[in-house]
Write a structure and sequence with these properties.
Length: 247
């Protein structure tokens, strides 16, 4: 999210594409790991490291067995960018300090092209783009209605300035897909109320394409909608607190 804030609250951004392919195997995973070993030479994790076995009975009576590993997550040496891939997913995770949306697209494209090259033909099951923000209010006496435009005291019992609160709603229609916003009170940290603002755009359709042109176009459109939802979620007071326009 290209947010012009000096104290941008983004703690994680994700560009993703859920896929379905019958050609993914442990060998595929290893080839992809090697392809990204130079740039993503930091922490290596295997997620859900259970080896699956798929058995197909051919017409001649023989069996064909394919093995596939769990997801692999690889980080840059500074830990600020990660790629994740598996039989069902390819994703790019960006961590603070967040740069610009356009700066992450080349890395996501490299992941996309390497995946198709090594895993073969794949079908897109969904597209996704997500931004997780954490916003701490100035003090325990601060009222969330002064910082979040859609917060309402009528939704909670007024026994404290920042009572337990969770709100999830669909903010916009995409073409295709939808954009969901969640605001959640996480508690008091360092004597400050902290809220998570989670913005998630997702498209699920049998007509999604694995072509980069289509994938990139959707992500650009989703990003514009997500930025609009982020801006609409914050009051002017909150924007000042986060340093909008101070860069």
């Amino acid at each position: 999210m290209s947010v012009p804030y000096k104290r941008a609250p983004i703690v994680e951004a994700v560009l993703e594409c859920s896929v379905q392919t019958g050609a993914y195997s442990t060998n595929t995973a290893e080839r992809l790991r090697q392809a990204f070993a130079t740039k993503y030479s930091g922490k290596l994790e295997v997620i859900r490291a259970v080896v699956g076995v798929q058995v197909e009975l051919r017409e001649d009576g023989h069996q064909t067995t394919r093995q596939f590993s769990g997801r692999i997550r690889m980080a840059t040496p500074d830990g600020k960018c990660l790629v994740q891939f598996g039989a069902d997913i390819l994703a790019l995770n960006a961590l603070p300090p967040y740069d610009r949306f356009d700066s992450y697209l080349p890395a996501f494209r490299n992941l996309h092209e390497a995946y198709l090259r090594e895993a073969g033909a794949a079908t897109a099951m969904s597209y996704g783009q997500r931004y997780i923000n954490r916003i701490s209010l100035p003090s325990v006496e601060a009222r969330p209605t002064d910082y979040f435009s859609f917060y309402s005291d009528r939704l909670v019992a007024p026994h404290s300035a920042n009572p337990p609160f969770a709100l999830n709603f669909e903010a916009a229609d995409l073409s295709p897909g939808s954009l969901n916003v969640q605001l959640l009170f996480e508690g008091i940290f360092d004597e400050k109320p902290r809220y998570m603002l989670d913005l998630y755009a997702q498209a699920t359709s049998p007509e999604l394409s694995m072509e980069w042109v289509a994938l990139q176009a959707w992500h650009r459109s989703a990003h514009d909608q997500l930025f609009g939802a982020f801006e609409a979620s914050l009051t002017d007071e909150c924007k000042r607190m986060l340093g909008k326009g101070e860069l």
